[in-house]
Amino acid sequence: MAGAHLLPAARRTELFEPVSQAFDALRQGIASMEQWYTIDNCLRLSEALIGLNIGNNLADSVRAGRMALDEVGGRLRAGGSSTCRAPELALIREATELYRIQLGLCTQGEMSKAVRTVENKINGAGLAPRQNEETCNV
Fold first, then answer.
1. N or C end: fewer C-beta atoms under 10 angstroms in the chain?
2. Dist. CA 36–CA 49, nearest whole Å
3. DSSP readout, 10-34?
4. Is residue 119 part of a domain?
C-alpha cells in the first residue's frame, strides 16, 4: 500500500541532497570520484524512471547530461580533475534538476523498481556496484 504513495517531501530531500552537494563540488571543480558516482547514479535512476513512463519527454536531456558527465568522469579518472566545461556543466545541471522533478512525480514503489533496475544493469554489466546509499537505496 505504501508503494502507491508519492515519495514524501522529506524523502525527496534526503534523496536529492547528496546529488545537490555533489553537483556543487563538480561546479567548483573539486568533485571526488565518489561525488561523480553520486551524480551518475541519480542520472541512471532518472533513466530508469523514464523507462517507467515518468518524464519520458526528458530522455534526450538526461542522455545529454549523462554524456557530459561521462566526459568529466574520463578526465577525473585520467588526471584527477573534475573541471567542467561550461556546456557540460549546463547539461549536467539540467539533467540533475530533471531528476529532482521526477522524484516529485514517482511513487515509492516506482522508485524501488527504478533502484532495482539500476542495480540489475550494474550487476548484469559486471561492474562493481559504486552506488551511494543516500541516492540509490529506497
1. N
2. 20
3. HHHHHHHHHHHHHHHHHHHT---HH
4. yes
How far is residue 70 from each of residues 4, 10, 65, 73, 109, measured CA to CA in Å?
34, 30, 9, 5, 29
Alpha helices, DSSP H, located in the chain: 9-28, 33-51, 59-79, 86-103, 108-124, 133-136
What is the rounded CA–CA span in Å between residue 101 and residue 121? 23
| Residue numbers of the domain that contains 120 | 7-136
Q: Within a domain: residue 79? A: yes
Whether 1 maps to a domain, the answer reads no
pTM recorded for the entire structure: 0.85
Q: What is the pLDDT of residues 39-90, one digit of tens each?
A: 999 999 999 999 999 999 999 999 999 999 999 999 999 988 888 999 999 9
- 2 belongs to a structural domain: no
Domains in the chain, number: 1
